[in-house]
Amino acid sequence: MRSGVWHHGITDEIGAALMKAEEMCFDFNSLRPSMTAERHAIINRLFGSIEEPYVLHSPFHCDFGSQIHIGHHFVGNYNLTILDEGPVTIGNNVFIGPNSGIYTVTHALDPQQRNEGIMRSLPVTIGNNVWIGAGVTILPGVTIGDNSVIGAGSVVTRSIPEWTLAAGNPCRPLRRITPADKITCNF
Q: Tens of pLDDT along 17-50?
């Protein structure tokens, strides 16, 4: 599945791995938010890797979990879905808004092949210091560069360079993020 080639994605082995991850997500989502140690223990078993500190709100869903690798100071808001048939790598200091999804898998266009489970996956990479707004969809094969911002409701179909404000459906770079964007605070 990680190779990016078309393959049969419906097997007993894959089904068992999907069920195991779904059970772990169910357990995670069933715990009270204040049960931090128990919630972190599940995520640490589920994910390939995740660095502390992090915040992951419920509900959260993924396909396997083992293909998800996340740096420190991550915030995944409510209703985040990561379909990790391919690797998902998320850097440090990444904020993902509610109702967002990261998808590495695509299915065959031909209905007979699709019904037979023909699919492939492509990795998704999100750099450091990235903010992904609410309701964003990130599709297979996308890389989002360091220090970028993806506007709410965007559908990211192509890679976004670093230091870029991007938005829309399909998501397009709007402009560079520059020192002029720094806010002066009075506190």
A: 999 999 999 999 999 999 999 999 999 999 999 9
Q: 45-76: buried (b, 16+ CB within 10 Å) or exposed (e) per residue? A: ebbeebeeebebbbebbbbbbbbbbbbebbbb
pTM equals: 0.94
Mean pLDDT of 106-129: 95
* Residue 2 pLDDT greater than 80, yes or no: no
Angle among Cα 103, 75, 32 to the nearest 5 degrees reads 100
Q: Where in the sequence numbering do the catalytic residues fall?
A: 107
State the pLDDT at residue 13: 92
Radius of gyration of the chain (CA): 17
Query: What gap in Å lies between CA 100 and CA 77, rounded to an integer?
Result: 8
